[in-house]
Amino acid sequence: MKRFVFAVAVIAAAGAAADTARRRAAVPPPPTFATVAPLFQQHCTACHRPGGSAPFSLMSYKDARPEIQQIKLMVSTREMPPWKPAEGCGEFADVRRLSQDAIDVIRAWVNAGAPEGDPRDLPPPQQFSDSWTLGQPDLVLNTGFHYSPPAGGDSIRHFVLPESFPRDRFLRAIEVRPGAGEIVHHVAVMFDRTGNSAALDAADPLPGFDAFASMEIDYGILGAWVPGARPYQFPQGVALRVPAGATLVLQIHYHPQSPAVPPDQTEIGLYYQRDLIDKIADAGNVFVSWGELKIPAGVKDIAFSRSMVVPEDKDMYAIAGHMHYLGRRIDARAVLPDGTTKCLISIPDWDLHWQGYYAYREPVHLPAGTRIEVTGHYDNSADNPQNPSSPPRDVHGGNNATDEMCGIEFSWAPSAQHLGVPP
Ligand code: HEC
Q1: How far apart are CA 37 and CA 64, in angstroms?
Q2: What is the model's pLDDT at position 13?
Q3: Alpha carbons 221 and 28: distance in angstroms, whole number
Q4: Which of 32, 84, 329, 338 lies 20 to 30 angstroms, CA to CA, from 300?
Q5: Given ligand 1 and candidates 35, 39, 47, which is best to mutate, with the most ligand atoms within 8 Å of its CB?
Q6: Are 334 and 342 spatial neighbours (Cβ–Cβ below 8 Å)?
Q7: In contact, 350 and 328? CB cutoff 8 Å
């Protein structure tokens, strides 16, 4: 409680319109919208704005006022802003977690009846432009048509982009720009060297295709996007490689929240690496095998683990956990050859709808011989509100959304690699 009084006092003292009468009585004035608006701008409006992924805007007092009780609840439970990795495990870039002080200020504002305060104290309004965050890309690609996913539920669709690359292309970043931000929940950029994706597309009467079939895919982990995410740029000299002859495939997870589903045409911008290429960032993963992953109906907590030994010194740039509906928690750590451990990621409250890729602030160095261990916990009881089966049924590993997976994906490169390849 002390902390909250202090935070409010500091903000109020810094505010232009301090209420002197109240200050004399040593009761700090309640926070106003001017106090919470900068927090909304910093932590919420990337999604909570017109055309954003969230169902309402938090750009103005008028927008925020009707939602105050839900806002208080969602920030108190830390369900909003969505940021799944636990504090203290992995030093990630662009952390979206609210500080306890910020949560206390928002709660105090709601408890005080959400006063508007003096509009002159408001921070300057934010400008959101449609332009690319990283500047004009070297190449912009899209599917060439608009697609409306079915209303009322989640669906996953794959689109083949109309471009292949006559020679290897080295990228420093991929930026994803969803066409209909309110329904696009997750985009992964992948490549296909087999031509299978084009055949699957041709066989499906609608734009794109649903299934993965036997497509040889390779996650461009840093070409993945979730609402509110900023594109990741590899350090100088490190690049993603799009192999000669490959086509890019967009995997889009749609999540329409109302019957009015706008058509989507998601674009990606490719940024070429301009410097000599020293390292190629590779996608790696550690997954429990599908055969081992057996989750009996009704079981409340069952865990599966898997580990791998790092064959040569590596630097890890980004990481993601992957489970489906029954996943409750996932943890990954690295046990170094000297016995010390590094926590890689911990998601104590797994939610399929908020799976993100998390970039490390500094690459994580993993010496040869390091063991990467991952453990996932599942709840296949009727108490799990995410359980897609009622009554619960036995679930095993597999590719369907109602099957399960357990593992981590990451992007890394050999520490000692010095290719010196021209871009
Ligand atoms: C990364 C995007 C994103 C950010 C950042 C974000 N939200 Fe949300 N928010 C959503 C989406 C999307 C929903 C809709 C529910 C869902 O799909 O889970 C939502 C739902 C909500 C709801 C409604 C919950 C309900 O079920 O009625 C509240 C309240 C909320 N957000 C408040 C906030 C606040 C306050 C912040 C900032 C402190 C914030 N959100 C930051 C995306 C975001």
Answers
A1: 10
A2: 36
A3: 48
A4: 84
A5: 47
A6: yes
A7: yes
